[in-house]
Amino acid sequence: MTDGRCPVPHAAPVPHDGPAPHRLDPDDQHAVNDRLRARGAAVPVLLPGDVPAYAVTRHEELKDFLTHPDVAKNACHFAALQSGELPPGWPMLTFATVRGMTTADGDDHKRLRSLVTRAFTPRRMEALRPVVHELTGTLLDRLGEAAAADPDGVADLRRHFALPLPMSVISQLLGVDAVYQDRLHELSNEIVSTATAPERVPEANREMVAILGQVAAARMKDPGDDLTSALIATRAEDGDRLSEEELIGTLMLTIIAGHETTLNLITNAVRALCNHRDQLELVRSGSATWDDVVEETLRYDSPVSYFPFRYPTRDLPVGDAVIPRGAPVLVSYTSAGRDERAYGPDADRFVVTRAARHLSFGHGAHFCLGAPLARMEAVIALEGLFTRFPGLDLAVADDQLVPHRSFVGNSPQKLPVTLG
Questions:
Q1: Residue 2 maps to a domain
Q2: Which residue stretches does the UniProt record annotate as biased composition, category Basic and acidic residues (predicted)?
Q3: Structural domain contains residue 75
Q4: At residue 89, does pLDDT exceed 60?
């Protein structure tokens, strides 16, 4: 990987020869992905504010790109940012500038990941298993109550089940008081949304930093058996520790990634199973497992679609394209997950016995540390849900589900269901 050293800021043009770049928006991402994959492994796109970028869309090329030694994560390589060309209040700025593992390279990344790994232990994750089981039971009760209270017996599974489960788990993991949880989710939505009004972007960031600063201050004053306390206390062998900015950045990334992705994963899995009852029957008959359901959902309908950002440190060939040095690049997990070159002609089908490897948690040095926790939560949630409500089904036609206002996250805004 790149050693993290940054060049002298320069403006690198992002040429768009050939067809006009596709303007990314939260429309039907899979239909868009099919068209973009047909155009190439790396295609020009336009981000909000008409910022030119590239998206890597095919599985094999994406796998290579994620571990390429000439691809960086540090925004000092982002040419348009360094040359002052981004519009004021650019809604995607946080993805580039937040201080933490996802924006670090080389030795800096190794240092930050090592410090976080010391606190993010398998023991700490496994200790959450009974918590997830208990929360799942409580939330299933509430989901039943919500459906019973509706004249048509309909409840929004996303609101009453898929959201509060990972939000409660990640809050308990970090030692975040319940009073902050709803607001942190609202702010996460604004930060992740690529349709947030420019004037709201800095305000949402400031408010989240302020709340997480209060969480950190409380844990400094009164340490507990939580990840925030462990992050504050942990040190490397040379005495190094997270700075205040790195601590807040790590908490922000953990809050957002730790609940938004699992929320989308559970929502997308339920949606897929309701639309593929034959696959649900394979699980019920013992021909497949809930782990299989989770892995196929991650491939078929990844909870993260176009994830920002990486930057080539030289003009970099990807497929038939050459991505210019300093161009922002998004990796499309939803597109790669349905790449027929990797998964065959039925790549757009949900098949729980497929047992295919996917890239939805990343690949290489930046592979998601929280993957085991997300998998555990989703398996427990899905098994509990369909055991309690075996007749659960969508309350509307699938094409009536409205996507979230983001091309980073991938999931419908609501998932109305009947419990059967």
A1: no
A2: 19-28
A3: yes
A4: yes
CATH number, domain of 251, equals 1.10.630.10
The reply to whether 261 falls in a domain is yes
**Interatomic CA distance for residues 134 and 351, integer angstroms:** 30
- pTM surpassing 0.90? yes
User: What is the domain range of residue 74?
Assistant: 22-418
140 vs 129: CA distance, rounded Å: 17
Contact 299, 340 (CB under 8 A): no
Of 282, 309, 310, give the one whose Cα is nearest residue 296.
282
Domain count, the chain: 1
Q: Band of the pLDDT at 151, cuts 50, 70, 90?
A: very high
Query: Considering the domain boundaries, does residue 5 fall inside one?
Result: no
Would the pLDDT of 178 be above 70? Answer: yes
Of 255, 265, 253, nearest to 300 (Cα)?
Answer: 265
